C-alpha cells in the first residue's frame, strides 16, 4: 500500500514509519522538522520504499501531490508539547487546525469512486481538559479553561480536528479513524518541548535536581511507543474502526513525584527532587489537569489490543537510549 505519514520524522511518526516499512509498505514522509529530527529516520533512508519530503503540511500544492499518490494517510504532524504550544500559539493553532483541514479536504477531493483514501488522525487525551474523572471514556465531557490560557488552544484545536474528521466521514463518507493518544513515550523522545520523562532522565543522568512542577501529586499513565504504534496499526486495518474515536494509553498510573523518584533510583543518580510552582515554568495562571488515565475498553473490545510494555520496561529502554544519546552527542549512523 502507498502510505503518507505526516510528521513522520517526529517521535511517534518515526516509530510508525519503521513498522510500516517492516510490513512492506511504500511510505512517504512529510515533515517540516519543527520539532522532529531527520536523525529519527536517518537509519531508514536507504530503504527504497521510503521517500522523505521536507516541507509543511500547510503547503497545499505539495500536499496535493503527496495525498494524490497515497491510499492511506497517517496524520501526525502537529505542534506538540505544552511548552512549544505556549511559546508558539499562532503557529500551533494554524498547524493543528488548518493543517488537518488540508489533509482531510485533499483526501476527500482526490479520492476516486470506491477507492476512498483513508485517514487516521492522531488526537490527544488533552481533549478531556480539566475533567477530573478517572478513567476517561471516549464519550466523556470535555472541560476547558479560559481562552486567555493558551495551553487550552492545543486541546481545542485537536477537538476541532476530531469534529472535522467526523464531519468528513458523516457528510462525504471519507473513511477516518481518530485515536486519542495518552502520554506516549520511548526512545527518540526529547525533553525540549516539555516532555516529562526525557527531562527527568536527562536531569538524573547529569546529577541535576529533577524539577517536578506543581505539588507532584498529579497522576499520569505512560504508554510505550511500540505499544502505541501496534494499537494504531491494528485500528487502521479494522473496517469497524472507521468513523470512531479510540483512547490509546497505558493502564499503569503514577504520580509525577513518584515517577521522579523511580527515575532517580533506576539511574543510580545523586539528584534531589525539587518542587517548582507552575507559574515559574509557564505563564501566570497556568492550568494543568490533575489526572489523566484512559479507559481502553473500546479498542480492546474491537481489536483485542493489550499493552506489552510495563512502566519499568519503558523507563529502562528510555534510560538506555538517553545514555547512548548523551555519550554520543546525539549522532546516529546512516544505513
Ligand atoms: N507523544 C505524545 O505523548 C502524544 C500524546 C497525544 C497526542 N500526540 C499526537 O501524536 C502526534 C505525534 O506527536 P509526537 O509526540 O511524535 O510529537 P513530535 O513533535 O515528535 O511529532 C510531530 C511532528 O510533526 C512535524 N510537524 C509539525 N508541524 C508541521 C508542519 N506544519 N508540517 C509538517 N510537519 C510538521 C514536526 O516536525 C514533528 O516531526 C501529534 O499529532 C500529537 O498531537 C502525541
From TrEMBL:
Pfam families per record: GDP_Man_Dehyd
**Pathway this chain belongs to:** Nucleotide-sugar biosynthesis; UDP-alpha-D-xylose biosynthesis; UDP-alpha-D-xylose from UDP-alpha-D-glucuronate: step 1/1
Where does this polypeptide localize? Golgi apparatus, Golgi stack membrane
EC supergroup of this enzyme: lyase
- This protein's major location comes to Golgi
**EC number(s) of the enzyme?**
4.1.1.35
Question: Which molecular-function annotations from GO does this UniProt entry contain?
Answer: NAD+ binding; UDP-glucuronate decarboxylase activity
Sorted alphabetically, the keyword list is:
Decarboxylase, Golgi apparatus, Lyase, Membrane, NAD, Signal-anchor, Transmembrane, Transmembrane helix
Q: Does the keyword Repeat apply?
A: no
Q: Where is the NAD(P)-binding domain?
A: 4-318
Q: Which GO terms describe its biological process?
A: D-xylose metabolic process; UDP-D-xylose biosynthetic process
Q: Which domain of life is it from?
A: Bacteria
| One cellular-component annotation, GO | cytoplasm
Q: Which cofactors does the annotated protein need, by name?
A: NAD(+)
Q: InterPro entries under this entry?
A: NAD(P)-bd_dom (IPR016040), NAD(P)-bd_dom_sf (IPR036291), UXS-like (IPR044516)
**Membrane topology category:** Single-pass type II membrane protein
Q: Which family does it belong to?
A: Belongs to the NAD(P)-dependent epimerase/dehydratase family. UDP-glucuronic acid decarboxylase subfamily.
Protein's name in the database:
UDP-glucuronate decarboxylase
